[in-house]
Amino acid sequence: MHNDSLRLFFRELLGLVFILSAVAKLAGADNFELYVYSLGLFPLGASFVIARLVIALELFLGVWLMLNTHPKAALKLAVALLAGFSAFLVVMIIKGSKDNCHCFGDLIDFTPWQSFIKNGVLLLIAVLSLKARPFNIPHRNLIAALTAAASLAAVFIISPPDNFRYSSYAIEGFNQEIFDKAVAEGQIDESLAEGEDITCFFSFSCEFCHMTAKKLSIMLERGAFEGADVNVIVGGKHDDFAADAAAFFADSQLPYDRIDSLSANTFLHITNGHYPVVIHTQDGKLLEQWSYRDLH
Q: Which domain holds residue 180?
């Protein structure tokens, strides 16, 4: 009886860890999907969906383990998933990556090495939970199927992929008339009204501006907007603009051709009070505009 209780404890603990991992990833879904996209394996839209499928799988597995309806099958899936994650981490380690692998989203910052060790501990816990007896629950297959469906639905309902609803995020965040006036008055450099440009209206303190810069950085790395100059316009006053800029670009890794500051009043009039705003222009005339979520 003692051994059975111990096996069950480890089984429930393993399930709880998978649930925690899924919930943490879901809470930081924006950063997790950018991480998936940054791997360079999938297009942007597919990265949104794949990130949520991973979360849903972990959530289902965690609940399934804790329900203990099919202990052998659930444990096999857990071991397979941990092995797959570990193989991925080995590739990241060989590449020399020290970035957060988002195993627990933004909740805990694990390097690939730390996460690999964590997976080893989880595999040990899985071994210790071997031969756990299933709970005597009626309709076990139906419960497992409903758990899978509920996990998938919950993740996509709580955090729908942005590419499912780009149109709902569209904003009128750019005022061409005020922009032209700012160029004419010398508030914005006239080079931004010549040729093809991607111009970003950011605030260094804005979380979504940071994520927009990261997303745009990955898009540029993968060949988007080839030939266009990338410009950054920052609104408001800063006690130490150079230090704030250095921190912002160290985080986002966004390459840029020009960075300028603009008075808060003019900045907010050009963006109609919205930021971040990213515009694609030809000779200063608007072709496209995006916020964070519909940038693609």
A: 167-290
Taken in order 66, 71, 72, 74, the sign of the CA dihedral is: negative
- Tell me: do 116 and 259 sit in the same domain: no
Q: What is the pLDDT of residues 1-60, one digit of tens each?
A: 467 788 889 999 999 999 999 999 999 999 999 999 999 889 999 999 999 999 999 999
Contact 125, 10 (CB under 8 A): yes
Q: Which helix (H) or strand (E) holds 201?
A: strand 196-202
Q: Using the Cα atoms of residue 158, residue 164, residue 165 and residue 170 in order, give the sign of their dihedral.
A: positive
Q: How many residues are recorded in the chain?
A: 296
At which residue do the structure tokens 């840029």 appear?
A: 256
Q: Are residues 151 and 174 in the same domain?
A: no
Burial bucket for residue 45 (CB in 10 Å: 0-12, 13-18, 19+): middle
Nearest to 199 by CA among 181, 187, 216: 216
Q: Does residue 269 carry a pLDDT above 80? A: yes
Residue 36 lies in a domain: yes
Question: How far is it, in rounded angstroms, from Cα 276 to Cα 265?
Answer: 15
Same domain, 197 and 118: no
Mean pLDDT across 172-179: 89
Which burial class, exposed, middle or buried, applies to 13 when counting CB atoms under 10 A from its CB (0-12, 13-18, 19+)? middle
What distance in Å separates the CA atoms of residue 171 and residue 199, rounded to the nearest whole number? 16
